[in-house]
Amino acid sequence: MKNFEYVLPGSLEEASKAAADGGAKLKAAGVDLLDEMKNTVATPDKVVNLLSVGGMREIVRTKDGWRVGALVTLAQLADSRLPAAITAAAGEAATPQIRNVATVGGNLCQRPRCWYYRNRAYACLRKGGTVCYALEGENRYHAIFHNDACAIVHPSNVAPALLALGATVVTNRRSIPIEEFFVLPSDHVDRENVLEDGEIVTEVQVAQSRWSSAYREERERDSFDWATVSAAVALRMDGAVVKDARVVLGAVAPVPLRSKEGERVLIGQRLTEKIAQAAGEAAFKGATPLSDNAYKRLVGPANLKRAILSAGL
Amino acid sequence: MSKRHKKRDREAGLSRREFLTAGAAAAGGLAFGGGRAGSPKVPSVGPRKAPVTLNVNGKEHTLEIEPRVTLLRALRNHLDITGPKQVCDRGACGGCNVLVDGLLVNSCMMLAMDAVGRKIVTPEGLARNGKLHPVQEAFCARDALQCGFCTPGMVMAGAWILSRHPDPSPELIKRELSGNLCRCGAYGRICEAVKMAARKK
User: What pLDDT is stored for residue B20 in this prediction?
Assistant: First the structure.
């Protein structure tokens, strides 16, 4: 790991100022950044420690929902009373010891797990090169949607759940509906979200609603692993009928992907296994798998079907 | 919010105030930087070595380290506390598990400077008055290891589980140990040992 100057801001203003300096990186717990730095994929001259800012560590219940501080840990979130999709997604992430330190803000802002991106030897598109090596290379964990330029999948578990619940990301400068927070490679290939230099996620707001929700993922092993496919579903039910639905797919695109196709199948219908299956199939119909990841088009609908049923029944 | 989480709300890691105190004592050993000329400077430490104090197993240790030094490296290479093992060095195996303010963490993925002002417990700190921790005793009694390299991390995870769940179910033990790898595959006996320790406690 390259050595660095450790900046200890006492306020968000100081943190923002220091982070806007070229060659600086923001850090919360540092789980993701240290990984990148150990691989020398990230070699910042300065690391700006958000832990020294203070605050941002609480989940505050408001009259219409929750305000989740950016430094709240995934363990805290998993143990909280937020909607089921969110607590389940947080509780399925990584391992107990990582959830004890990893933060909500860090989880949303973590970099992709693509092995070409994480390997310094590959000057890939996302690192300023000209080629996405995954397109013609080893791509079994990569995207099956929006994968024409760079085939990363967004690594956050919590993001699809927050998207299904219509959360808002608050920064030191503005409030951003989470639907507008993540960016596709065709818009920005060197970052995964809309944050500008010196902009810091401070909070995530989740409104209370009568929607019921669920998160479900498939992975290659039960213990510590990233999802091969995941799904977060929020449903507004009227008895057995789906009045409204929000369906979000994870681990299949460079962003957590809202599936209007899946939602359309559900809305107005009595929730049955058959309808859930049809929604799953509709959501994955437009997939464009690469050489090694067509299995996601089979596993994805089944996983989504189960998420829909567990949200609605 | 549980008590466990409330604990974390207070300032942790090297705070600005502690750092400024440390800086005053360091006789010019610290570089301040981060601000543009004419504007107030944001405090910083490093890249050169700076003195920090770590509380490990109830004892304060002062050491001089660069900011890039992880807690694992500080423990093993600077303080000669070698119970936490360096294996994957990426937070994937649990070999380096320690408790920080009562929470199980991968010491390889935490900067040592972030552990300043917090209570660190390593496998060396589990025994009390010469008596092994119930989890350690159960690992011996159940022979819950083959090569033993994962054992310090497993024992820390076991102690952490029992600190929160006095009578954990086998499913809970499995889930809470899921961040620990044993390449020998002694998982069966490891889970049994944690269960056994819970009964003894």
Answer: 46
Per-residue pLDDT tens digits for A141-182: 999 999 999 999 999 999 999 999 999 999 999 999 999 999
Residue A145 phi, psi (nearest 5): -130, 150
* C-beta atoms of A38 and B104 within 8 A: no
What radius of gyration, in Å, describes the C-alpha atoms of chain A? 19
Tokens of B188: 């069966």
Chain B partners within 8 Å of A59 (Cβ): 1
Give yes or no for a cis peptide into B67 (omega within 30° of 0).
Answer: no
Written as six digits, the tokens of A74 are 């995934």
**Residue B175 to residue A6: CA distance in whole angstroms:** 35
Size of interface A-B (CB pairs under 8 A): 145
H/E stretch holding A250 reads strand A241-250
What's chain A's length in residues?
Answer: 313
Crossing angle for the helix pair A295-312 and A273-284, to the nearest 10 degrees? 140
Distance CA B107, CA B110 (A): 5
Average the pLDDT over B88-100 and give the result.
97
Rounded CA-CA distance B60/B71 in Å is 14
| pTM to 2 decimal places | 0.92
Q: How far apart are CA B90 and CA A36, in angstroms?
A: 10
Q: Please identify among residues 83-142 of chain B the ones whose CB lies closer than 8 Å to any CB of chain A.
A: 89-92, 94, 97, 103-106, 109-111, 113-114
Buried b (16+ CB within 10 A) or exposed e, A44-72: bebbbbbbbbbebbbbeeeeebbbbbbbb
Q: Scanning every residue of chain A, which has its alpha carbon at the shortest distance from the alpha carbon of B97?
A: A97
Q: Say what the ipTM of the complex is.
A: 0.95
Place of tokens 């179910």: B169
φ, ψ for residue A183 (rounded to 5)?
-125, 145
Q: Tell me, rounded to whole angstroms, the distance of Cα A169 from its chain centroid.
A: 12
Helix (H, G, I), strand (E, B) or coil at A258: strand
| pLDDT at B28 (0 to 100) | 33
